[in-house]
Structure formats: structure tokens, C-alpha cells
Amino acid sequence: MYCPYCRNPDSRVVDSRLADDGSAIRRRRQCPHCGRRFSTVETTSLSVVKRSGASEPFSRSKIINGVRKACQGRPVTEDDLALLAQEVEENIRASGVAEIDAHEVGLAILEPLRRLDQIAYLRFASVYRGFESLEDFEEAIDALRRQNEDAGRVPTGAQRPLTAR
């Protein structure tokens, strides 16, 4: 690690701490040449392989932006979206792979989004899974109903009475 002040190619680690909920390590370093201190952050690299074959670094912000569209008009906050993106990243990192297909990232989004908001889940799934007919929606809604019955809970949005528009 080059010192950012004097470009000396050596540095000494003074302190190490976990950062970003344990997914990174923040290190305080000191240059033995000029004596100045600086911080570095170490993370494992995670790449997403696109359909075109191109590879790019994993980005939580891309997940948030993609899911935000499905959540428009829904009672979902920016904090909810940030937590969803964090959960998706943690699940992907827990799989132990350094490269993941973009399609797999989409699959990793579906379950946390279903738990967050079922309407947003249907919107996202309809685009992601390429729903082509009403039957596709009906199958997805039936699956949600079965999951709700198995869990013994009321679906998101069902607490509010329907109103005429």
C-alpha cells in the first residue's frame, strides 16, 4: 500500500476494525518514512456477470434503484430499500462466490422483496420473470396466498379497506 502523502511503498497497520456490518475491514496505517497516518478499507470483490458477458462490480445502489421502481406508491421507505439491498448482498456473499450471474442477483432480490411488500414483489417479479398473461399473475398471486396461509398472516396491504377510485 503506497502512502498517499509521500508515495512510500510500505506502511504499518496500527489498528484494524470491522466496518459495514462486518463485510469490510477498516485499517489505520502509518507510513514509516513520513510518519503520517491514513485509513484503508478492505472488502472482498464481488462481480456481477451481465447477459452480454461483461463483468462489473456489485452495487447496492443498482439494487435499490431497480427495486425503487417496483415500490413506487407503496409504503416503503429508503431505509427499507437500503436494508433490502444489504440483505441481498449478504446472502450473495454468504454463497461464497466471487462472481455471480445478474439473473441470480434478481432471484436473490425476490424473497426479501416479497417479505417487504407483496405488491412491489408482484411488480418486480412481473418484469423480472417476464409475465406474459393474466395467468402468470394469477399463479404468482395464488403462490403468495398459499405462503400467507402457511405462515398464518395477513398479506401486506390487506389491513386497509379497498376504496373506489
TrEMBL record:
Any one GO molecular-function label of the UniProt entry: zinc ion binding
Superkingdom as given in the UniProt entry: Bacteria
Zinc finger residue extent: unnamed: 3-34
Residue ranges of domain ATP-cone in the record: 46-136
A Gene Ontology biological process term: negative regulation of DNA-templated transcription
Keywords: ATP-binding, DNA-binding, Metal-binding, Nucleotide-binding, Repressor, Transcription, Transcription regulation, Zinc, Zinc-finger
Stated role: Negatively regulates transcription of bacterial ribonucleotide reductase nrd genes and operons by binding to NrdR-boxes.
Record protein name field: Transcriptional repressor NrdR
Organism: Arthrobacter echini
Source organism phylogeny: Bacteria, Bacillati, Actinomycetota, Actinomycetes, Micrococcales
The gene coding this protein: nrdR
